[in-house]
Amino acid sequence: MTAAEIRADLAPNPASYMKARRRIVPEAGGLRALRLAVLSTYTANILEPFLFVEAALRGLKLESWFGPFGQLEQPALEDGGELYQHAPDVVLVLAQLDDLLPGAMPRFLTLDAAAQQTALGEVRARLSNLLATLRARTGAILLVANFPPPAVAAASLADAGLAASQTTFTQQASAIVADVCRGIPAAFVFDYARLVAGEGLRHWEDARLRHLARVPFGVPGQIAFAKLLARTLRAAVQPPAKVLVLDLDETLWGGIVGEDGPGGIQLGDDYPGSVFKDFHRYILSLRDRGILLAIASKNNEADVEEVFATNRECLVKRGDFSAVRINWERKSVNIAAIASELNLGLDAFVFFDDNPAEREEVRVALPMVRVIEVPDEPIGYIAAIEESGEFDTLSISAEDRTRAGAYQALATAADFHAASPEDFLRSLDMKVTVGPVDAMTLPRVVQLLGKTNQFNLTTRRHSEADVQRMIAAGAVALWVRAGDRFGDHGLIAVAIAVPEAGACWRVDSLLMSCRVIGRCVETVLLAQLSAEVARRGGTRLIGEYVATPKNAQVATFYPDNNFAPAGAGKWERDIVTAPLESPSFIRVEVLP
Length: 592
Prior knowledge:
Distance between the termini: 54 Å
CATH class of the largest domain: Alpha Beta
CATH architecture of the largest domain: 3-Layer(aba) Sandwich
Low-confidence stretches: none
Mean pLDDT: 90
CATH topology of the largest domain: Rossmann fold
Helix content: 40-55%
């Protein structure tokens, strides 16, 4: 059963979702299994059919366990209890502020400033202890719901004008949720407050359900909750797409530039041009998050270049695109060429084109590319991309924010000509910094472990808790930052080696961002990993290559670095009598 077939028969009521759930179950084998555990201060198991169906629509087969009503800490503290027997991939914590502070919220106006801060401290302490307990016992991703504003403020209309209003207090409590999550590995905010605000607080609650069943939302709210949670769960386990490939005419602007001229296209502050201008702002915000922008357009290149050069209403500039193909080729051919240019797999690409025939051509020719259904009205373009969830991520790193600029720098570097490959690399004035994985670098390291596919020798997807346990058990875990005369590429490579019998060590993970492939950074990483293993008494290093459909380019990595065959996809090297060396044209800084 396809997602389109499920949606076609789906109505916004419990009976329809129950029917859909029964229809999906026999065909759920093609979905990615995900085990969810829910700890809640209110009745949450009513969400199960909605969650199952919405998760299936996002490609997930959800197996849910709901803790006892009103209990947060008890299941978390019970070693070997039902929570841990369920072996969850994700644990969701749902708590109402009224339940965490039962003595404070109903009589909020009786709290002075000191009492409010005391109450907020109680929220912080309880959530911190709960998450620490969970993290010590499970490697699951932790999601914690924040708090929507009160349905009825204690001060009613006067609340907004109070120096310490109940609404502000609730926002401070939500900020504490975010702060606590930032301090716990693999813990993230489930933005329940934004969901309620977006759906409308007045229509969120069903008073009868609240009183009869301790359910804080009506059926529309249950469906909306399930949709957002399914989207969040998908983001938790699936790396986001990396590239948005855009058409131009009737997509980036209204009209056809070849007919209307660079100044005659619809793009400006008045409708309908204002719709496209808003779309520009949105895709630039995607770029700011680290999403690469590309163009695949059937057009005359000179006409398009004139738009970028002369149309003052065009907020997106030519330099904002990491790759451009403007010609009369099939879109699939151009997208494949862009993938080759950027050295990224096709599954990292999202295609957005107003023409349904062009979308279908790409779907058939390049099934790995994610094609978004584009609405007939441009006013729906932003929602179509945003609600697709293709670019969803639960965290954004400093490297994400600079990724687009780094690819622009790479494009500039690619245009630089030198007498030989080594002369070219030497001319880049490359500097590499290598350091041990610590609390500051761990989130970025796990992000790379989770999403790097091409230059990845084993493709093992370790969580933050997994990496911490490996380091505690004696593993060597290193990261690499790289920069050159064209810019800083950020933290782009990771290697983890674990001790085995005797003085033998095994490389569990070795991976690198595709943005620096071909720069010999991987040689520096392997050399420094070997040196650190030798410093700890290791004499022999075993390298593994686990083949996937995407990492063929690294199949010969170990033999290329003079490792001898060791059988079953493994290679070995004596790192004491034959130590590895870094290329002389790369400046290497090693941090203690």
